[in-house]
Every structure is written in C-alpha cells, then in structure tokens.
C-alpha cells in the first residue's frame, strides 16, 4: 500500500490532480459508507495496478485493484459480470 493513502468517512467532492478514489475488495452495496463490515475507501496517487472500477459504488468514478474491475455490487453481494 502506498504511504500517501488518505482514508475518508465521506466521499470527497473533489480530488487533487494525480490522485484517485479507490476502495478495497470487501463485499459492499452501491451506497455503503466506510467502516461497515470492513469496507474502506481512500485517495492515493495514481499508479500502476489500479484500474477503473465498474461496480457502481456511489455513482462516482473510482478505482480498484486490477483483477477486480469486472465485478459488480448488487443487493450487498459481489457477482461476476458475464463477459
């Protein structure tokens, strides 16, 4: 994990240039706040290994670890999107 991670309890309205909003792999719903069942989100510098996430969380652009981008949150569970 990068040293410049900044955890939040609310989704930030703006991000500084070169930073991304990201979340962990914990099962979550589209509007889940930070801290529920271990779900966390943060901002960090953009770096390799992070890709645009398609889960729909909060309806805002955000990133996840590469390999998790084809998952979707729905009804509080992860399910693999059929390709």
In brief, what are we looking at here?
The protein has one domain (6-80). 0% of the residues lie in helices and 31% in strands.
Give an overview in words.
With 83 residues, the protein is an all-beta fold. It has one domain (6-80). The protein is 0% helix and 31% strand. The protein is built from no helices and 7 strands. Strands 1-3-2 form a 3-stranded antiparallel β-sheet, with no helix packed on it. A hairpin with a 2-residue loop joins strand 6 (71-74) and strand 7 (77-80).
Query: Which regions have little confidence, pLDDT < 50, spanning 5+ residues?
Result: 74-83
Tell me, rounded to a whole number, the average pLDDT.
78
Report how far apart the termini are. 30 Å
Q: Could you estimate the helical fraction of the residues in percent? A: under 10%
Please compute the radius of gyration using only Cα atoms. 12 Å
The coarse silhouette is globular
Number of DSSP strands?
7
| Main pleated-sheet profile | 3 strands, antiparallel
Question: What is the topological layout?
Answer:
Elements: E1 6-7, E2 19-23, E3 41-45, E4 50-52, E5 63-65, E6 71-74, E7 77-80
Antiparallel strand pairs: 1-3, 2-3, 4-5, 6-7
List keywords for this structure.
two-stranded antiparallel sheet; 83 residues; mainly beta; globular; disordered C terminus
């Amino acid at each position: 994990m990068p040293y410049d991670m900044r955890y939040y309890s609310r989704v930030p309205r703006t991000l500084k240039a070169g930073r991304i909003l990201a979340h962990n792999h914990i099962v979550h719903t589209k509007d889940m706040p930070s801290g529920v069942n271990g779900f966390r989100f943060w901002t960090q510098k953009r770096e390799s290994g992070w890709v645009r996430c398609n889960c729909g969380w909060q309806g805002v652009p955000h990133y996840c670890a590469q390999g998790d981008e084809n998952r979707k949150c729905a009804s509080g569970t992860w399910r693999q999107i059929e390709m």
